[in-house]
Amino acid sequence: MRVYSSRLLGQNPDLVLHGGGNTSVKLRETNLFGEEEEILYVKGSGGDLATIAAEGFTALRLKTLRKLIVLESISDSEMVRQQRMAMINPDAPSPSVEALLHAIIPFAWTDHTHADAVVTLTNTPQGKELIWDVYGDRLLVIPYVMPGFKLARKVYELTQGVDWNQYEGMVLLNHGIFTFGESARESYERMVDFVSLAEKYLEKHGAVPVLEKPTPEDLQALARIRRKVSGVRGVAMLAILNNSPEACGFANLPNAKEIAARGPITSDHLIHTKPIPVFLDPENLEQSIDHFASGYAAYFERHTNGQQTRLDSAPRWAVWPGQGVIAFGRNLKESGIVADITGHTMKTIQQSERLGGWSPVSEGHLFEAEYWELQQAKLKTKTEPPEFQGKIVIVSGAASGIGLACARELHEQGAVVVGFDLNPEILNILGASGMLGMQCDVTDQTAVSEAVATTVRNFGGLDVLVLNAGTFPAGQTIADMDEQTWSKSLEVNLTAPQQLLQACVPFLKEGTDPAVVFMASRNVPAPGPGASAYSVPKAGQTQLARIAALELGKFGIRVNILHPDCVYDTGLWTPEALERSAQRYGLTVEAYKSRNVLKIDVKTKEVARMVCAMAGSIFAKTTGAQIPIDGGNERVI
Q1: How many CA within 13 A on the CB side of residue 510?
Q2: How many whole angstroms separate alpha carbon 397 and alpha carbon 493?
Q3: Number of domains into which the chain is organized
Q4: Domain boundaries, position 142
């Protein structure tokens, strides 16, 4: 029942967003020694109420928690340590930092959310009065205090001698709402009732967001913004543009810059959003981001006690007049969380303004929450992210063979990958989170341009291009060559990569450590008879890549060429194609497959790993190179 009602709350984003909120239940249980104990089951720290299971709750001895709350003062780090010592299962997740609050409340069932409508009321100058107008004396009202031991202690002090039975819940100003009861249903229905009353109050007073028709996206500027933000943070980031009517309405408000800079809905969001967004001056995009970074550094210096480590100065979201709102993140999960939170933030800010003014907590309180000792401790346990995290990649010919192997390997190493292919199944083949399959005829210039634009529209830019799409025509001598075979191979193997590269160059110029990898062929340095329709466009592609390396180097774009051979685990190498090629050399199929120096074939995954090396830091100082991956060919060597 605790899991069930928690999920009901967690699945409503107007109540709970991304790890926010917490729930608990108090039970009497018999321990290993036959002793009966009061146990608090509370949500584990960082857990998601929307999907929580029984294992997501941590069991704590209430006797210990009640001793803790009597202490006048302890650090939050010590509180967490003591709470862990009160756990009856050491393998359970760390308990919520608000576990002590749940211990204080003398009811079996407790629910806590950061409901938008309730927080909207309290983030106004007359927040306490509005709560009274809506609820009368049904709720206990607590002034804002930093979450952790201080908040628990404040509630403990204010409730000494209070008859809890006269209240159905508790409001923490600028923070959220608690409800409680003797059953899961009672606590849950109280939460729904209180939030519904707040929503009706907002509706009655015309507190609704402004909607405005979106304008066409400036994708080039979006890529430029992403590059600048990534540079400030020192790592590649995604930039998710929200140009919905709600976002455009907010961004175009006359006072958007001022009200957005007052603070977040609740301090719980700081870890995702930072205190404020960057406001982008359409005429000075990069300077706006520089100004935000210097302002963040100044904010840190104003409030630090000299013991904290300053976080990076990059914004996590942006207000962009004329375009909407942008969410920045190291990956889709992080940027998605920011996007969700900012969607609710925009609405709440406007509603509070209609009620008398958006007035969240002070800058000092924001700093206290953002640089909380428990958050600072997490900085010491950072793990190294995958190399391509935050990078945006396009792979052509991604539905099978080498292209599919490249898409999967780059995705495994942290990139978001967009795959183009003529095969309509590409949508399902690249169906995992962080992958986007697009049916696209790479010989259709209009389709290619739109596919590239869709990539930037979805993720904010482009960093890596793998030109892999190609065709392997049936072997014909020059004397017997038919015009269609020749023309089709030139179109697919030479013109198409030129057109795709051309469409991508403007965005690669705005990429982070941008790189292009051409998938050429061993036939370029060592051609064979009967394969002119394939070898000639591949040689032209190689020459195109060499010139691209010369032209694009000044923009920091690396262009390198890979010459694979003996890659037989692809759709190109059908039994018939193998037989034809073997016959041209007067060999059996088996002899043909082992004709290289190392007497081995090359796997698509091995080619993909080489592509990752060439697109990554290993080849950071290399451009215009031609690398064979063919098991060693005597004529190439």
Answers
A1: 22
A2: 11
A3: 3
A4: 2-204
